[in-house]
Amino acid sequence: MFGWEVFDIGLVGLHLNGGPSYLKQLDSEEKAVINWEVGGGVNVLGFITADLRYTIQKGSTNGFTQVEQLIANGGMVNLTVGLRL
């Protein structure tokens, strides 16, 4: 993942990120898939972080297809909250 820190004023910071993701099921004979992820997040008080990422599935041609797949199939949206050490 590649990231860009949009701003950081000490108490609150905002960042954007994106890049490839590698997906392989260990108990399956299927080939591995490389998708793209885009997202962003916030840092609060310098040690609390929250990220929201969306996985763009390989083979999709436009954004409308992605939204339809997200609604119909549950999609791949990850929300992560954590502590920075």
Short description:
This protein is mainly beta and 85 residues long. The protein has one helix at 63-73; strands at residues 2-8, 12-23, 33-44, 48-56, 77-83.
Fold topology:
Elements: E1 2-8, E2 12-23, E3 33-44, E4 48-56, H1 63-73, E5 77-83
Overview of the molecule:
With 85 residues, the protein is mainly β. It contains one helix and five strands; from the N terminus they run E-E-E-E-H-E. The chain has a five-stranded antiparallel beta sheet, with no helix packed on it. Strand 3 (33-44) and strand 4 (48-56) form a beta hairpin. It starts with a strand and ends with a strand.
- How many angstroms separate the termini? 19 Å
Rg computed from alpha carbons, rounded to a whole number of angstroms: 15 Å
Q: Taking strands numbered 1, 2, ... along the chain, how are they ordered across the largest sheet?
A: 1-2-3-4-5
- So what's the overall shape? elongated
Count of helical stretches:
1
**Beta content:** over 45%
Element string (H = helix, E = strand)? EEEEHE
Mean pLDDT: 81
Descriptive tags:
five-stranded antiparallel beta sheet; 85 residues; 1 helix
